[in-house]
Design goal:
2 domains; mainly alpha; Cathepsin B, Chain A; 7 strands; two-stranded parallel ribbon; single chain; 225 residues; 3-stranded antiparallel β-sheet
């Protein structure tokens, strides 16, 4: 089957805007629909998931993901719910979890299953908290307490404050930084809106990264939270 590159600029607007666009929802699939759209519609960073024969790679799941979901999304801007259900049925079979076809899951659970257990991809992030041992993971979920001064925050503010409150640092620059926005189910939303940051400055989030002193402009020797 023919493969299609991610949508960019005017092409993205032309293909993705309008009715019957995006990934059709069905049976609590919203967590997976949103994740797949974010990972593949307009970026090629994770296209290795579609083509590369990883050591543990399940080629059937890989072909469903590529040919039934990503290529139609990039070609026509629309994916039928039955295609996502086909993937969910395979995840249920491979993940030994019977509820992947009907229940809402945490996106992190979906990403861990498909990236680690099914495709065998190395973790994308290396994090360290308060000088402890490194942690490997595939995505980062923002956790933070309610802050009155943040009414309509952007992603940059949320990531920085979340890292600060958890005493986290990135051990190295990630090839792909998947971030889950803060959420608390159907009853309570911490923020009614979040502004997407089109670029993310991770300078202050990197472990042992040389940075400029905010007073004299030389290389800083101390960091104040």
């Amino acid at each position: 089957p023919e493969s299609f590159p991610p949508l960019r600029n005017e092409a993205a607007v032309h293909v993705l805007r309008g009715k019957m666009k995006g990934i059709q929802g069905h049976c609590n699939s919203c967590y997976m629909d949103a994740a797949l759209f974010s990972l593949f519609s307009c970026t090629s960073v994770l296209d290795s998931m579609l083509f590369k024969p990883f050591p543990l790679c399940d080629r059937n799941v890989q072909s469903i993901l590529r040919d039934e979901i990503v290529n139609p999304l990039r070609k026509t801007g629309f994916v039928w719910a039955r295609s996502v259900m086909h993937l969910r049925e395979q995840l249920t079979e491979k993940g030994q979890c019977s509820s992947f076809t009907n229940a809402e899951k945490d996106p992190e659970e979906f990403l861990n299953l498909i990236m680690h257990q099914i495709l065998g991809i190395e973790p994308l992030l290396k994090l360290q908290s308060g000088g402890q041992k490194e942690q490997d993971c595939y995505c980062y979920q923002i956790f933070m307490d309610k802050q009155e001064d943040l009414v309509v925050p952007d992603v940059q503010q949320l990531v920085e404050r979340s890292f600060l409150s958890s005493e986290l640092k990135l051990v190295e620059i990630p090839s792909c930084f998947i971030i889950q926005m803060p959420r608390f189910g159907k009853e309570y939303k911490m923020f009614s809106k979040i502004i997407p940051s089109l670029e993310l400055d991770i300078t202050d989030l990197l472990l042992d990264s040389p940075r400029e002193c905010c007073i004299c402009g030389d290389v800083a020797s101390l960091e104040c939270s």
